[in-house]
Amino acid sequence: MTRGLGVTIDRVRATDLTRIAAMERQCFSDPWSASAFRDLEQNPRVQFLCARAGENEPALGYVVAWFAADEGEIANLAVAPEARGKGIGAALLDAALTHAERMHVSAVYLEVRDSNQTARRLYASRGFAEVGRRRGYYRRPVEDAVILRRTFDSAVVNAEW
């Protein structure tokens, strides 16, 4: 559990899933399904965290990261529209990157819409750099995905899964 910015970052609970699925629909034009989030909850290779203002408060944002071998991926990160601009996205990303360092990964990847300058600035501030593109990857509207990577200098492969 991490505290700061007036929020707590902790593992997602079953009671958070309805709010997270609703937030996903608010934030993305091609949202993940509620069942996709339910499937993540118990997966040991997935770090599924949310930010909330207090113990019994609803989720204000969430991050999904998964890890395999010596690599990780930030698969999803969102902050409720009414909670944006307060550092919650950065806190969620930092929590996922801290976990990646503990897992001794060599690199973490993510994809972001080419036009999402706010997210791209956040990722750049945490050491992510562009390594590729997926042309026409996003639907509604069709847009390229920019592939970003952050490497970790002191990574050691963690064979304990």
Number of folding domains? 1
Distance between the termini: 22 Å
What is the number of helical segments per DSSP (H or I, 4+ residues)?
4
User: Approximately how much beta-strand content do the residues carry?
Assistant: 35-45%
* CATH evolutionary superfamily: Gcn5-related N-acetyltransferase (GNAT)
What does the radius of gyration come to?
Answer: 15 Å
Main features:
single chain, 161 residues, alpha+beta, Aminopeptidase, 4 helices, disordered C terminus
Tell me what the structure shows.
With 161 residues, this protein is an alpha+beta fold. The protein has one domain (2-151): Gcn5-related N-acetyltransferase (GNAT) (Aminopeptidase), CATH 3.40.630. The protein is 26% helix and 37% strand. It has four helices and eight strands. The chain has helices at 17-27, 34-40, 88-102, 117-125; strands at 2-4, 7-11, 46-52, 59-68, 71-79, 107-113, 129-138, 143-151. An eight-stranded mixed β-sheet has the order 1-2-3-4-5-6-8-7, with helices on both faces. The longest helix has 15 residues, at 88-102.
What topology emerges from the helices and strands here?
Blueprint: E1 2-4, E2 7-11, H1 17-27, H2 34-40, E3 46-52, E4 59-68, E5 71-79, H3 88-102, E6 107-113, H4 117-125, E7 129-138, E8 143-151
